[in-house]
Amino acid sequence: MLRISDDGFEKAFARMVRNRRESDRQVGRDVAAIINEVRERGDDALVDYTARFDNHGLGDDGNWQISAEECRAAYSALDADLRDSLEMAASRIRAYHEGQLPDDRDYTDDIGMRLGARWNAVDAAGLYVPGGRAAYPSSLLMNAIPAKVAGVGRLVVTTPTPKGEVNPLVLAAAHIAGVDEIWRVGGAQAVAALAYGTHRIGKVDVIAGPGNAWVAEAKRQLYGVVGIDMVAGPSEILVIADANNDPEWIAADLLSQAEHDPTSQSILITDSESLARQVEDAIDLALMKLPTAKTAKASWDAHGLIVIVDTLDQAPTLSDRLAAEHVELMVDEPQVLFDRLRHAGSVFLGRHTPEAVGDYIAGPNHVLPTGRRARFASGLSVLDFMKRTSFIDASEAALAAIGPAAVRLAEAEGLPAHALSISTRLK
Amino acid sequence: MLRISDDGFEKAFARMVRNRRESDRQVGRDVAAIINEVRERGDDALVDYTARFDNHGLGDDGNWQISAEECRAAYSALDADLRDSLEMAASRIRAYHEGQLPDDRDYTDDIGMRLGARWNAVDAAGLYVPGGRAAYPSSLLMNAIPAKVAGVGRLVVTTPTPKGEVNPLVLAAAHIAGVDEIWRVGGAQAVAALAYGTHRIGKVDVIAGPGNAWVAEAKRQLYGVVGIDMVAGPSEILVIADANNDPEWIAADLLSQAEHDPTSQSILITDSESLARQVEDAIDLALMKLPTAKTAKASWDAHGLIVIVDTLDQAPTLSDRLAAEHVELMVDEPQVLFDRLRHAGSVFLGRHTPEAVGDYIAGPNHVLPTGRRARFASGLSVLDFMKRTSFIDASEAALAAIGPAAVRLAEAEGLPAHALSISTRLK
Prior knowledge:
By secondary structure, the first copy, chain A, is an alpha/beta fold. Chain A has helices spanning 9-18, 25-41, 43-54, 68-77, 80-98, 137-150, 168-177, 187-196, 213-222, 247-258, 273-289, 293-303, 315-322, 334-338, 355-360, 396-412, 416-426; strands spanning 2-3, 105-108, 114-121, 124-128, 154-158, 181-183, 206-208, 227-228, 236-241, 265-270, 305-308, 326-330, 346-349, 386-393. In chain A, the strands form 3 sheets. A 6-stranded parallel beta sheet of chain A has the order 1-11-10-9-12-13, with helices on both faces.
């Protein structure tokens, strides 16, 4: 617990802002070696790594992929309530992302020059889906639906299936989202296969989706060979709360991030020391009953933080420095605070908007910038699966109007062929 | 010269598409070491590298920065025609980019849930401006104006000044664009200083701007610590032309890319072998007079290509595989071909739109994806200097309508604290 009025506050808070809780250099070296192997040995490298890391043998064609039929069967076998919940989530996510589709531009300006820009989806996108404990159907929906709304023709999932096991919920979500291919490959090797392609797996243009430190590092290293959604780190929540809150609600919200991973971070900023104490007690109580208590406690003990401010007026400045992935505004007039925030992945306004409602079903994407990256990055959107081509169409008269100025600039820059390409048309 | 009807065409064309003409691993290691030094030793490292690489001594405060007064003086000293040309370019670039400003979203859906997204500029952006031969005022305008249109408060230029020399045209452009700080530092060390900050140079959120292989690699390695505009490679032009063209115009267009750098690439696709021969001759002729002939010839000899197709109907498919930075459509009805293109950085329609008009003055950005990256990347825009915060505001009734489904999904995913944060509010 830090008090803004304490002497050491600035130093302690600055240290918290700097601490990225992210991966080390050895991961970078391991991943570079894996990428190199997959690039050179293709499917053979995938067979070797999958045997070693996933204890799964990739042999004949049959067991490399999970078929559309298997996904449909998983969907049909779902409990009806759960299936309806997934469908409701998919339809709300789809509706929100359809509103992100960008408009093309095409206009003619005052000198008669036609200018504009046209958006197109990428041809193919790859989605990494973690295996085991972190295989989340919600994550598949959040990644796959924007790609499909963007108009991506070929949507490829890679996912590790340790000992051959698959998560039926993920398959059901793939069925709902209309995934085109699913490959039983995981880790950095899967990302490399998506980026460079192998004999079996066709390469893609953009790779999205969450993963462990190796997967995240592989995406970072392959950025430029393909587009990637973002460099992701551990999850974060910042709750800004006045005295007038139920401490159990806030405790649950803080723990909902903490239960993801021991490196997750949960922060409470409040002007009420009494609320702060009650939240601490509520967390201790909740941890006694929570099945995920081990992870949540590890995260809360190592990275949890409560900041006591003199007045909530001080909260937006602190919040912008943290640039947290998720910011909850648990106050009567959240809009007032929201208007003063500049850097946050997603903001949850008011006491009845727990962050988890955004994880699943509200509609906006739950793939959001972490590690202070909301200073410059945005959550996943349809734009991550599209690109823009600008265009220029000059009439003879329009070229005559502005060509001479361009010739002058080209000559001043010492680029005579640039100048010539215009001047030869002005003769 | 390749003919699409020849036996070896597919193999030769595929090799051309694969060839990225990009940097090697040694650059990666050198850059990693430089970044590390700057991160650990800050300004001292900058002093050392600047003495070594730029032969320029950074000593007292006075010579680290180029002042706004120096920029204003450079602007005032410009030849009036050149100044007017720069101003015309700036005003057209500004007008085009103002049209890119995104709309916020804020709506309430059918269950009474308020959803939306809000765009903000980043706080600070860094622009790398090359020194020496490649110091282009047009490049400064193309990078700085979108940042200022986006609303970036602090716009920082770093540029090497070998032996202390500066380019007055670049300073004049900085004056026009409203750059806030200019630091006399270049190379990977400048990019590292912008990303991590030093005692003198405050860190930024996004780094844009062209540079040599070391600068490009530094940006790639620091992606994630900061946002970057893109991973850039050598420039490219693809001209698609029918028989009915002046070969001198096409020769000049091809050479306008070739003169940038020996690694640039110029490609002509035409259905007229006779035009192809005439263009080859016109290039030879132009090279005899061109002051930049040495570079242009090296590029044309090493990477130039003419593809003869049976019909221009075949051109869009080849063009999409190349996904070129610049595509010129030198035909009577360019729109017909344009409608069939999916992957290109920028398209220049019709015989009176030489690519160079887009480099300087048309309005759209000349910072465009290279190295086949138009498959997934877009040219520089105001969006590169902005980020989006999504938001959710649930009423008690809205939470009641969708909360139970979210609880079900959270439980199915094995995240009980997520479920608890919603269910505790539904009581």
